[in-house]
Amino acid sequence: MLKKEGRIRIPSGCAISGIFSKSGKRMSGEKIITSIATMHDRSNGLGGGFAGYGIYPEYKQFYALHIFYDNTDAKHDCEHFIEERFDIINLSKIPTRQIAEIRDEPLIWRYFVAPLQTKLSASHLDEKEYTGQCVNHINTNINGAFVFSSGKNMGVFKAVGFPEDVGKFYKLEEYEGYSWTAHGRYPTNTPGWWGGAHPFAFLDFTVVHNGEISSYDANRRFIEMFGYTCNLLTDTEVITYIIDYLVRKQRLSFEEAAHVIAAPFWSTIAKRAPEEREQLEFLRTQFSELLITGPFSILLGFEGGLMALNDRLKLRSMVSAEKGDMTYFASEECAIRIIEPELDRIWSPAGGEPVIVTLNEEGRKCL
Predict the structure, then answer these.
(1) How far apart are CA 213 and CA 233, in angstroms?
(2) Residues designated as active site
């Protein structure tokens, strides 16, 4: 008897999709929902989520903290911690609609905050490091509270469910952003729970990931030496912290960071021109513990840009496309064609070669 699609495990499962406007044109969340829904059979209902950039223009100078609470005690403890360290400009429940497919939701709140200047000055940290340390403290030390989004003018929306249901639950049609990413999860080695759904976020970085990280323990042990804590029961979390460490703390470019986590083979490096070879050798040697091994494709969202990256053997699918000032990424071509049938260009990026798009001059005026 032939096995039917949808009744067996999809070995390349998990779906990712991304949309980016170089001119900063803000788009409703409906488009990204339509895109990810096309790949329904690549996930199994144990996690779905979205990240949108440019969605809070009226509060763009403030950090937007999206927080899950298990109970009101956790909410009380967390809010007390936040009030001691930040000015709270606005707080409210994140709007949702009740649908049968999304169940057992936690308390979901949103806070627009700015670091208290007295606390910030006393800390001798810049405001991103200050905010990041506060987020890490909440997620590690306040039982029942989890900050799942913490950047400016952006936000993550995720849950246990199929992604199209998650988008409906969060009313994403009411948000507009210049960049969207989405994920449909098919967990194989870790549990499906609200905090473990993708995207994973830290400050303005967000990651959606299809694949498995065989180097997770080595990557985690190294990154935790620098103040990060991996406690979300899934390997993808470490990618977000690695990016933050390399780009924000070590000040590498996104292309350089890509050449760390998906470093070319030594035999490939040896064939490059002398100047490029020297740079790649330095990156591979200096940050050897942050090489990610195993099959993966990721979309990294950041303020003003989006990066797509496959593992160096391209063991997970990734398609890129362009139409005018729009750039699209997805696990399957159908997820792009459903929202933009007529494309100027479509291609499959090579393994280990990042595709990075950023806002143009017109778009940067929107930030």
Answers:
(1) 13
(2) 14
